[in-house]
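Lay summary

Proteins are chains of building blocks that fold into shapes. Our project writes down both the chain and a compact code for its shape. Here are two examples, one after the other.
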Amino acid sequence: MLQIFHDINIDWLGKRRFFIGISIVLMLAGMGTAFYRHKFHPNGTEAFNLGVDFKGGTVITVRFKQPPPADTLRAAINQAGIKDAVIQPVLDKKGEFLVKVAHQGFEESPNGETQAGVDAARAKIKQALNTFGAEADTNAKTLEDDPKAAYKIEGTEAVGQVASKQLRNQAIAVTIAALVGMLLFIAFRFEWTYGAAAVIAVFHTVLVTLGLFSIFQIEINLTVIAALLTLVGFDVNDSIVIFDRIRENRKLYRRMNLYDVTNLSINQTLSRTVITSGLVFLSVVAMVLLGGETLRPFSLALLMGIIFGTYDTIAVAGPIMVRRMRPVAGYLFGVDAPIGTILGPNWMDEFLIVTAIEEDRVVLGYATTTEFEAAGLRGEAYSITEAKAFYGLR
């Protein structure tokens, strides 16, 4: 396998407080911004800039004889007084666009958008479209039937409050279901502690990404939810690669404590992580720069998620996993454990015995059940004296 880094020996867990501190600051900044915008902002803005899919509005289908570029159409709609319109070309119908706009200065009924609101949005869109030529006659069945027309509004639909709320709830439910599914899979495939660490790291990526969307008020629509679900799978995949290497190294280096095994595993997989994430990063950057306004929220969500997902795979998932493994593996952050304390058996049917205590971790010795039985020690209730005698400790 291609190796970018050779013979690296970075103490990632030794820097865990610094990395976790960065994560906490980023999450607090995002949540604080969202809370401020929702509760105290003078203009009463929402915590997130929700798109038409989640906030409701009007969807207008328009067809052109000579379709203008999407950016030109967006500029005309902006001049008509509608900001943040979503313009989507219909790929299978030449010259046809979907124009999604938010509510336009009307009171919404509980069952959906009022007709007055639909008419207001349609009037503003029509004002913008008239800059490209005349609208087709209402009696014309198709755009081609009117030789003087430049465009025809094929249909107008309202996305009401109820439908938008259902989409929003479904988006939240799908994201949570994906996280729970990942937790169960990794818990079944490895251990529940690995699953918990991976899901916490993914949750961290999602929260940081949403926080940045709140800070910069980037629109959140259904494509952003698709990006977040993509990040869930991508981030967990990276974490699984490291966890699998940790599992292999624990078998190869039985006398090495979990702290050092985790550092070794992260360093060994660092080239793979950087290459994989780097290639995806370059592809996403191209989408950000060349994908246009329609794909901008989707590509920005992926860009932020790739950056912070790679970061938390390396710097967050490992320390969390080690922290959660401490009742089994004995990596105790500042917790005193007498030399000779027995922990186990673990998932590999091994007993772990504290053989030394260092500044912020304990050093473990490994012994299988067979080795214990050969020494005349049976069961799980061994005295500290017996454990010390087995390892030749004083």
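And here is the second example, written the same way.
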Amino acid sequence: MNSAEWRAYYRQNRLDRLPVAWDAPVGAVARAVRVSVARFQLGESSEGRRLRALAWRTGDAAYAEAIELFIREEQEHARLLGTVLDRWEARQLRRHWSDWLFRRCRHLLGFYEEIAVLLMAEIVALKYYSVLWNGTRDAAVQRVCEQMLHDEKFHVRFHCEYLHHRFGGRRWAGRLLTAMFAGASAVVAWNHRAALVALGSSAEDFLDDSWRNFAAARQAILTGEAFVWSRATQQAEAPAVLPATRPATWAEILDFARTVAQCGWRAR
């Protein structure tokens, strides 16, 4: 889709929101899950001032307006997750090393690189909210996950299509994106490992499915094909690709994430 079509999509999606039965019964929630959701809620709450400014500098007004609407959608996710935390009587976070690390990485380079870092977060969110949906019996939380999964799959496609203009057909870009995703997915898997287990998954399962989603997104960026993700199967349906090459073993990836976490904690 072109920029005007994405702007129209976001405008329509802002109106077509799923109702949430906040008065549904609240079941028991593991402490690890409450902590994990609080960290994701913090990550969704960015004001996006730098991103907005850089988007307007592209000279594409429709794209800049689409970015504005994308940021508002992310902030709506923060509001929804905040309400979930209130239901659980869990506190919201003001800061966390993982949020600091992602924001720092976003701001290190230029606009395309910031979009690429955002894309990594959107890809891991597809698996995370799928795990949360599968692992809870709370009808309100499941409905929140359904809404966010709908939004996130289009966020991935939106960013893939824009990054195609910068990285399309360039092999070095595929290697760069793979390195970025290796770091991002490892940090998230390690940071949320206890919650993943509590929800019936694992860090290894999280990484395995996230890498499959990344492989499709990377192919979409390089070829210009549309990224398609199915909530029914909870996996990417297109572009059809072989699994992305994963670095070493899951144990080594998680060990790397632990090292990154320690560095991020010290640098706060």
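What can we say about the second shape? The CA atoms of residues 30 and 198 lie 7 Å apart.
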